[in-house]
Amino acid sequence: MNTKKTVLLTGITGFIGRNVAEALQDNYNITALIRPNTDINRYNNFNDKVNIVEIDLSDTKSLISFLIDKKFDYILHIGALRGGRKYNNDEFFKANVSSTEALINNAIKNTSKFIFCSSVGVYGAIPTEVPANLNTPYKEDNYYHFTKIQCEKMIQEKIYKNELQGYIIRPSITYGIGDYGFPYTLIKLIHKKMLFLPKEPIYIHLTNVHTLVEVFTQLLQIVILRNEESKDFEPGKIWNVADKNKICFQDLAEYISQEIHKKSHSKIHLLPRSVFKIFTKSAKLFKNELWTSRFELISNDWFYDVEPVYNDFELSEYNTIPSFKTVIDWYLSKN
Prior knowledge:
Strand content: 5-15%
CATH class of the domain at 5-179 and 204-244 and 304-317: Alpha Beta
Radius of gyration: 20 Å
Number of helices: 12
Structural class: alpha/beta
Low-confidence stretches: none
Distance between the termini: 48 Å
CATH topology of the domain at 5-179 and 204-244 and 304-317: Rossmann fold
CATH architecture of the domain at 5-179 and 204-244 and 304-317: 3-Layer(aba) Sandwich
Order of helices and strands: EHEEHEHEHEEHEEEHEEHEHHHHH
Strand order of the largest sheet: 3-2-1-4-5-6-11
C-alpha cells in the first residue's frame, strides 16, 4: 500500500524547484506542473518518479480546470515568472498572482498545507533598512516584486481568516550549480574583467541552494507531524532565508578573481558610488527593470535578518566564501 504523501509542485524546471524536487522525489508522490513545449532535457531525470503535467501557470482556465477534481496533501508553489523577462504586466499577473489564487483556493477546498516560495524582493531590490526583517515594509519597486507582494497578501488574508494553513519562505538571491542567474552573471563579468564595483564596501546576502532545500524538506516533515503534537509552526510563519552571515561584495569579487585569474580584482574597476547612481537613474529612465536592478544590487547594501530561520530549523551553516567555489568551478567547466 502506497502511504507516501502527495505534493503538487510548481517550478520544477527552475533552479530552486529542481533542487527541491530532487530532495523530495524518493519520499513523496509528486505531481509537477510545467509549461507546455518545455525542453524535455530540463525535466527528463524526473520522469520515473514525478508525474509531469503540462500546464502554463499563466493559463488560468486550464489550471483551474486541472485542479477541480485534484487533492494534494501539500502544495509547494515555487514557480513564477522572474523579473527582467520579456513579458507584459498582464502575463506576469496571470502567471504569478492568478495562479497563486487558484492554488490557494484548491488548498482551502482540500485542507492542503500551502507553502509559498516568495522572495526577499518584497522588500524591493534594496530594502529600506538593513538587515531587513519581518517588520520591514513592502517596497513595490518593480512589477515582479509587486506580484510577489500581492501573493503574500492573499496568503496572509486567508490565514488570518483561518481558511488556509500556509507558510511563506523568502530566499535571497540563491547560488548553486546549474543556475544562470545573478551569481553566474557575476562570475562571467569578473571572468571577462568587466565588473565594476563601488570603492566603498558593499554588504550583500546570498543563499546556498542546499540551505533553501533544507528549509523546504524540514518544513514538510514538521507539518506532517502536526497531529502528533511534535514540533509545530502556526500557519502564517514567514522566514527570510540566506547564508548565516552577510558578505562584503568586494571580498566576493576578489575571491572569484583569485579563483579564475589567480590575481586580484583590478582596482581600476572600483568607482565612486555616485557613478552607479547615474547608471541606475539612466536605466530607470529607459524603463529597463533588469539593468536597474543590477546597478542597484552592485552598489547598495542588501542583507537580511535570518536568525529566526536558523533558530526554527536545523540548517547547515554555509559561508558564502568558500561555498561559492562550487559555482565558480561549474562556470569554468562550461566556459
